[in-house]
Design brief:
The protein has about 400 residues and is α/β, with parallel strands linked by helices. It folds into two domains: about 1-150, ATPase, nucleotide binding domain (Nucleotidyltransferase, domain 5, 2-Layer Sandwich); about 200-385, ATPase, nucleotide binding domain (Nucleotidyltransferase, domain 5). Helices cover about 40% and strands about 20% of the residues. It contains 14 helices and 14 strands. It has helices at about 60-70, 105-115, 125-140, 160, 165-175, 180-195, 250-260, 260-270, 275-280, 285-295, 295-320, 330-335, 340-345, 385-400, and strands at about 1-10, 15-20, 25-30, 40-45, 50-55, 85-90, 105, 145-150, 205-210, 215-220, 225, 325-330, 365-370, 375-380. The chain has an eight-stranded mixed β-sheet with strand order 5-4-3-2-1-6-8-7. It has a six-stranded mixed β-sheet with strand order 11-10-9-12-14-13, with helices on both faces. A hairpin with an 8-residue loop joins β13 (about 365-370) and β14 (about 375-380). It is globular and about 60 Å long. It starts with a strand and ends with a helix. The relative contact order is 0.11. It binds adenosine-5'-diphosphate. Adenosine-5'-diphosphate binds near residues 212, 240 and 284.
Amino acid sequence: MKVLVINAGSSSLKYQLLETTNNDVMAKGLCERIGIDGVLVHTGNKSDEKFTIHTPMATHSEAIKAVIDILLDPDKGVIASMREIDAVGHRVVHGGEFFSDSVVITDKVLKAIEDCVPLAPLHNPPNLIGIQACREVMGPDVPMVGVFDTAFHQTMPQSHYMYAIPYEYYNKYKIRRYGFHGTSHKYVSQQAAEMLGRPAEELKLITCHLGNGSSICAINGGKSFDTSMGFTPLDGLPMGTRAGNIDPAIIEFLAENENLSAAQVIDILNKKSGMLGISGVSSDFRDLDAAIADGNARAALAKDMFNLSVKKIIGSYIAEMGGVDAIIFTAGVGENDRSVRWDVCEHMEYLGIKVDPEKNKYRGKQMDISLDYARVRVLVIPTNEELMIAKDTERLVGELNK
Ligand code: ADP
């Protein structure tokens, strides 16, 4: 099945065309500056050549049209007719408590995604626009599937997802831990079960999605049991620019002393904190490493804080699950940064965790990096959210056609 995977942001739109029979990425690309002018960077797999096309994209519909045009282009494209696209899979950030799995998009589903807008005001509206744009351009007969960042975490027990604030706010506003990066946590946990040659139902896993945004997930018997992101993706670990978990009283203190509104403080916690805020250098771990090599103490402090937070959460999840079979590192930092993996796992031999310094030198490659005798396996598994979206789309559209 040929599935077009769409990840629509407020002014950008990422796409991949995948053939699910052999997991081949036929073409992929990114539309940027939608509503401003419009730039499309496209790669088809006939060659690895990248094409940059400047074309007006006033709306997401125009961006989708540009994507379809380039996919059909005799030189740069990979298909001869739009009808070759069997289905579309959309990444949707927030599914609230409505969705615990991916779902075929109907009017009722669209309404539920809309009902989740207050929970993800920056993300769900562009996701909805992406869905509507595809409908407009491709017509109502092409089946579409929504794949939610939150869905995988809907299996968390209530004691894990509640915040200890008056219960009425859960009833009234659905304030609770939702968790994000669910598609990635699910994908790498499935790959891990395959690597370990054991059914997911038997395994206790901790998946560390460490990128620009980072979250950790305890996966017990194939199901999300706890996760570090919460009501919003600001909770949990300190990240590139996000503060992660802090004492909430800091918000009022800063608002008062810096003469800021609560929204302005939250903006600082989202965009000027984390690795950037502590180091004063950058949100990018590669820049931090360069600064550390130059003797920058604050860059070193930022990374130490990050590694410590990852370690603390891993420790708490081992305690919650009563053990762990494997710890998985994924996403930009997890796949590439050997010093993060080493520092996080250091001094955990007593738990059966021991990374092999030689195997840890590799990066961006699926492999077991633990010492042979270690009781707990430490795995590096490159994430692939697009493939997961395409596979879910294939499964649900297949069921539809039964
Ligand atoms: P997101 O999808 O959240 O935007 P990614 O998972 O692509 O983020 O991760 C991006 C981050 O990965 C970069 O900001 C950078 O800090 C880190 N990264 C990428 N490559 C490397 C590398 N070779 N060494 C260390 N960190 C890296």
